[in-house]
Amino acid sequence: xxxxxxxxxxxxxxxxxxxxxxxxxxxxxxxxxxxxxxxxxxxxxxxxxxxxxxxxxxxxxxxxxxxxxxxxxxxxxxxxxxxxxxxxxxxxxxxxxxxxxxxxxxxxxxxxxxxxx
Length: 117
Fold this sequence. Notes:
Order of helices and strands: EEEEEEEEEEE
Structural class: mainly beta
Helix content: under 10%
Oligomer: single chain
Low-confidence stretches: none
Shape: globular
């Protein structure tokens, strides 16, 4: 069993930066993919970025060049460095983790990011 706890959200002005962290606990050796999704009010949850245990990274087009995902496998932690934030980045950001086969997946409780114009 794996639990995820996010931190680092907050209020920032457009053009600013935030760094989100997500710490996994429990059976972290089973985790293969970790990532971040976001959900804005009235919209569906969408992919932001994912990173595999081997370091393969995938970004949503809307965040490429502005956000950077990284991971510390030994600590079971994933980070999301968000630069040049825009008001449209305002959302609840959720950490996600799953095993290699996709037979289990777990979500964090979410952390709110608000970007003011």
